[in-house]
Amino acid sequence: MKRTLFVFLILIFAPLTQAASGFETIVAKIKPSVVGVGISDPMGSPRNVLQGTGFAVGDGTLIVTNFHVVEKALDPESYQQRVVFIGIGESPKISPAEIIKTDPGHDLAILKIKDSLPPLTLADDTYLPDGRDVAFTGFPIGAILGLYPATHRGMIAALTPVVIPSANAQQLSIQMMKRLKEPFMVYQMDATAYPGNSGSPVYDINSGEVVALINKVFVKESKEAALSAPSGISYSIPVKYLHALMAELE
C-alpha cells in the first residue's frame, strides 16, 4: 500500500516540476535580451538615469521600447546622451542609442545601438485569447532597485480599446478624444507592473515569443499609489503594431 501511494505522488508532482523547469529555461533565455533605456549625463547627478525597459529584436542591434520612455528631448545645453544599459548589477555596460523609428500613436519606439544582443522572437499578429498565461521581464522601479531584471507572471484578461471613456466628459483630454475616434485594441492584463516596466516584453510562457509590450498600469488613486497599492491591472501593446513599425525599416 505504501509503495502504491509513493508512486501515485510521483505521478502527480512530476509534471509540475517539469513545467516549472521549462518556464525557468524560458526566463533564462529572455533576460540577456532585456535592457534598461535611459539617459547618461557625465555632468549630471545622478550621471545615469533609467527611464524604462527595452528588448533586442531583429539583428540584435535594434532595441524596442515605449515611445513615452524616450519622448522627452535631451537637454541641448548639457552633455546628455540617450543610452541603453546592458547587463545586470551596479555597473552595466552603457551603449549610446539613436532613435531611428517611432510610432507615438501606438506608443512604440525603435532604437539602434552598436552592440549586438540576442534578439527575441516576435509572435505573429494573431490576438491572444482571454485567459492566456503570459509573463514579462523588466526593471520595475529601476531607478531605485537598480539594473536587476524581474519577471512577473499574469494572464490576458481582455482585449479592450486603448481608451475607455471617462465618467465625466470634462476629464477627457484632446489626446484622448482623438483616440476615441480611432481606437485600437490593447491587452488588459491580470498582472502587476510598476514604473520602470514600460517597454518590458510580454511573452508566452511556453514558447518565449514576444506577444506585446507593457504600456501602462491602471492607477486607482495617485501615482504614488501605483507603488504602495498597485491595482494589479496592466495594459500592453499587441506585437502586431510592432511588426508594422519594423516593416517601415525595410
TrEMBL record:
Keywords: Signal. Pfam families: Trypsin_2. Residues 1-19 form the signal peptide. Transmembrane segments: none annotated. The keyword Signal applies. InterPro entries: Peptidase_S1_PA, Peptidase_S1_PA_chymotrypsin. The keyword Ligase does not apply. PANTHER family: PROTEASE DO-LIKE 5, CHLOROPLASTIC (PTHR43019:SF23), SERINE ENDOPROTEASE DEGS (PTHR43019). This is Trypsin-like peptidase domain-containing protein. It comes from Bowmanella yangjiangensis.
